[in-house]
Write a structure and sequence with these properties.
mainly alpha; 212 residues; Rhomboid-like fold
């Protein structure tokens, strides 16, 4: 009989599925908590004045809005609709790949913000997390194409059938001026780019030649 004298270190052991799932849920919850806290402060203490710190296209002060805009919302309906988007698309992405979620969240926010700053309509202020949500959507929509894996392709098809209608609000809109199609299309492009950059296509089988 032999005894293993190596002690197991909980800090270095692989987390269980339940622990991993809980960590992902907490990440989404914290993101939403910040958004709702900012909205409550703006609605009840600042009386909506925080919205002026959003993205103002092609202005120097509007550059700071790239950082602030995802956490600012114009109304209860606005923050609620983006909450659903983060839970559904952000939650689906973080379940699929936690590293991809962080990469798409950061790059998508920057891409959506900078794109809006460049192509946004003059005299407008853009706020909201919809650019980040469209980055999630873009990544999930194109991940299967670039990865060429069955599971990723199935996920992309599912996202297209469930949320493909979102593509319409990424096109220039002259009917609802309250919709920031500029942020939507910029976030979508950011998500597409991240799907390409993070793609790991299946390795090609090695070809071995028989020895003479």
């Amino acid at each position: 009989m032999t005894l293993n004298l190596q002690s197991s270190d909980p800090a270095t052991s692989k987390p269980s599925f339940a622990q991993s799932l809980a960590r992902r849920a907490v990440t989404i919850a914290l993101f939403l908590a910040v958004i709702w806290i900012v909205w409550l402060i703006d609605a009840f203490l600042s009386h909506g004045s925080l919205a002026q710190h959003g993205i103002v296209p092609r202005s120097v002060r509007g550059l700071l809005g790239i950082l602030f805009a995802p956490f600012l919302h114009a109304s209860l309906g606005h923050v609620w609709s983006n909450t659903l988007g983060i839970v559904l698309l952000g939650g689906l992405l973080i379940l699929y790949s936690e590293p991809a979620f962080w990469a798409v969240s950061i790059f998508g926010a920057l891409a959506a913000g900078l794109g809006t700053w460049v192509i946004g309509r003059s005299g407008t202020v853009h706020v909201g997390a919809s650019g980040v949500i469209f980055a999630y959507f873009g990544y999930l929509l194109f991940a299967g194409i670039f990865q060429r894996r069955f599971g990723a392709l199935l996920l992309s098809l599912l996202v297209f059938f469930l949320w493909g209608g979102m593509l319409w609000s990424a096109l220039p809109s002259f009917h609802d001026t309250a919709i920031s199609w500029e942020g939507h299309i910029s976030g979508l492009a950011g998500g597409l780019l991240m799907a390409k950059l993070l793609a790991r296509p299946p390795a090609k089988p090695e070809v071995t030649l028989p020895s003479a």
